[in-house]
Amino acid sequence: MARKLCDPELLGPWKGQGLTLATLCSHSSLQIFHGARQEGYRSLGIAQGRPPRFYDAFPLARPDGFLTLPRFGDLPDHVERLRSERCVLVPTGSFVEYVGPERFAKLPIPVFGNRRVMAWESDREKERVWLESAGVRMPRRYEGPSEVDGPVIVKYYGAKGGRGFILAKNRQELEGYTITEPHVIQQYVIGTRYYLHFFYSPLSEDGYRVGEGSLELLGMDRRDEANIDELYKLGSQEELTRSGIRPTFVVTGNVPVVLRESLLPDVFDIGERIVERSLELFGGMVGPFCVEGIMTEELKFYVFEISTRIVAGTNLFIQGSPYSDLVRPGLSTGRRIALELRRAEREDRLDEVLS
Ligand code: ATP
User: Fold this and answer.
1) Whole-angstrom distance, CA of residue 309 vs CA of residue 114
2) How much of the chain exceeds pLDDT 90, in percent?
3) Homologous superfamily of the 8-133+191-223+257-352 domain (CATH)
4) Which atom of ligand 1 is nearest to the CA of 249?
5) Residue located nearest, by CA, to atom 10 of ligand 1
6) From the centroid of its chain, how far is CA 148?
7) Mean pLDDT of the 170-182 span
8) CA of 349 to the centre of ligand 1 (A)
9) 231 has pLDDT over 80
């Protein structure tokens, strides 16, 4: 049976009307506006202060209009304009960061995907319950330093973009740090990072079937993380710490990657488990999501995080990726979102992809 995610009252005025795809002028907006345009949708850029000038340099990705706010966080005070243009909000990491998960979840404007997922993703404890109960392998979590028996990464709650994490090679080194803020101590997994870009369509009836829809793999990237990626060039950790240089995982860009083809069955198995469990827990995750993990030399994949919306790593593939090209040539995640909306409109199933 089809799962309805959206309150009919909220969606009523949007049905049968020309929709506008709206997102914040940040993160993956170029790709979202470009994809909207490719599928004949109008687009609206929500800008903070003046609209960024860089859109003038990219005419095919310039939104058709702008809503200018003093600050992104003021969005809840400007829903009338979004209503009048029958906007559908396409969520990105910027909404969570600048509007906040609770206020975003309450906006009286249809959102692409299931907004209930936010409560599960933005809370590290709930995220672990979801992923572990799906049978996905995650890095071990230590209750305290006395349990530590190998290298660890200490993550503060609410740390922004991996700034201020602590790495320690063993218990002794960890005990040398005074950690006062709320945090988790996690096994530091040694291997190679992969960020897997999936798309779950509840509407699709062919392809790799999961639930009543199907799962697509649209791309993969690895994040460039300043300054950790290049730190090895400077020497060992202790020496660096003595010199006052602390590693950070602040993302500065992305590089494209592909996985050994023999590992693709594992990748789809992970995506499938996560989607199936989301259907049981909160009505399902719809649209783009990213599974972030580390492949070890034993070829075991440890998932340390999930992002339940378009991730900036997909910006690499505005003209398609080695994977999405095999779904449809030139397919970006932005265009995939617009295509899903078009199909939902055609089949009168908007309430299955909007919430
Ligand atoms: P963001 O919000 O940018 O995703 P975050 O604060 O949620 O960051 P994580 O994504 O959990 O933090 O981790 C940031 C980076 O730290 C990862 O991209 C990865 O390089 C590294 N990392 C995280 N967990 C582990 C782990 N268990 N083992 C090894 N490296 C890890």
Assistant:
1) 10
2) 76
3) ATP-grasp fold, B domain (3.30.470.20)
4) 15
5) 305
6) 30
7) 90
8) 36
9) no
Nearest Cα to Cα of residue 81 among 64, 67, 99: 67
Binding site membership of 193 for ligand 1 (Cβ less than 6 Å): yes
The residue extents of the domains of the chain are: 8-133+191-223+257-352, 141-188+231-245
Q: Collapse the DSSP code of 130 into the 3-class scheme (helix H, G, I; strand E, B; otherwise coil) and give the result.
A: helix
- Contact present, 32 and 25 (Cβ < 8 Å): no
Give the pLDDT score at 159: 57
Rounded to two decimals, the pTM is 0.94
Pocket test for ligand 1, best of 249, 292, 309 (most atoms within 8 A of CB): 249
Q: How confident is the model at residue 141 (pLDDT cuts 50, 70, 90)?
A: very high
Average the pLDDT over each of 70-84, 98-112, 151-165 and give the range with the smallest value. Answer: 151-165
Q: Copy the structure tokens of residue 349.
A: 């199933």
First to last CA, the chain: 17
Residue 228 tokens read as 């950790």
Please give the distance, rounded to the nearest whole angstrom, from the Cα atom of residue 162 to the centre of ligand 1.
6
From atom 24 of ligand 1, which residue's Cα is the shortest distance away?
304
What CATH topology corresponds to 141-188+231-245?
Answer: Dna Ligase; domain 1 (3.30.1490)
CA of 242 to the centre of ligand 1 (A): 24
State if residue 223 touches ligand 1 by the CB under 6 angstroms criterion.
yes
Lowest mean pLDDT among 200-209, 217-226, 245-254, 342-351: 245-254
pLDDT, averaged across the chain: 93
Is 161 near ligand 1, meaning CB less than 6 Å away?
A: yes
Atom 17 of ligand 1, residue of closest alpha carbon: 249
Q: How far is the CA of 127 from the centre of ligand 1 (A)?
A: 14
Residue 132: what pLDDT? 98
* Joined tokens for residue 98: 């600048």
335 neighbors 51 (Cβ within 8 angstroms):
no
Record the tokens describing residue 61, joined without a space.
């990705």
Dist. CA 67–CA 310, nearest whole Å: 21
- Per DSSP bridges, beta strands 42-48 and 20-24 are parallel
